[in-house]
Amino acid sequence: xxxxxxxxxxxxxxxxxxxxxxxxxxxxxxxxxxxxxxxxxxxxxxxxxxxxxxxxxxxxxxxxxxxxxxxxxxxxxxxxxxxxxxxxxxxxxxxxxxxxxxxxxxxxxxxxxxxxxxxxxxxxxxxxxxxxxxxxxxxxxxxxxxxxxxxxxxxxxxxxxxxxxxxxxxxxxxxxxxxxxxxxxxxxxxxxxxxxxxxxxxxxxxxxxxxxxxxxxxxxxxxxxxxxxxxxxxxxxxxxxxxxxxxxxxxxxxxxxxxxxx
Length: 262
Prior knowledge:
The protein is α+β, with helices and mostly antiparallel strands and 262 residues long. 20% of the residues lie in helices and 29% in strands. It contains 5 helices and 10 strands, in the order E-H-E-E-H-E-E-E-H-E-E-E-H-H-E. The chain has helices at residues 29-41, 74-82, 139-146, 197-209, 215-224, and strands spanning 2-10, 48-49, 58-68, 89-97, 109-118, 131-133, 151-154, 169-180, 183-190, 239-245. Strands 1, 2, 3, 4, 5, 6, 7, 8, 9 and 10 form a 10-stranded mixed sheet that branches. Strand 8 and strand 9 (183-190) form a beta hairpin.
């Protein structure tokens, strides 16, 4: 058996999340990708990923691994698999990795971007690929408020009710909010994330950006560890898993962070 790692990009708008579902009526990125890889390998494939994304969430830097008895070169895994995939999913690269590599357990950190479009009229071109907010937002206040999240904290206040993680403690490496043309981009990196953690953080930061809460309010919510005190969960449309960091010894490609329209 050879272990392979793949870099995956996908538009999650038409999928019921990453994870394979029992019902075939619910298309998932994992299910579609495993079928395509099985055709190339001529054997069943079971994927492990760096981070399971929810329905409607996108990935420009997802990483997966699988074990396979078939011998295929990197070009075959990329080009051959892509011919069997819908336009919304693409394999970007493939590498042979050692047996101790694991897409999730070997990851040092994950990076997400949340993209907001501010304008009175919702854009037609990037439908379901960003979150539209018609109100004016104070980007500087968002950035200032978000700095309380940096470091190791209990993120229970930003955790989904159905989250199955063993602990709510996570370490945020950095968080940045900036204006980029007509977009506002929140970028956050952590060792790992809880279910809906980024979307719940964004929903709370929007309260600050709209002037409904002070920047200091976010720190109070964080330390009180009460989900009911935080803002509503932001839409999935603007969320992207853009990168996963691994030890250099695995030799995986490092690509520019997406999404491509930024």
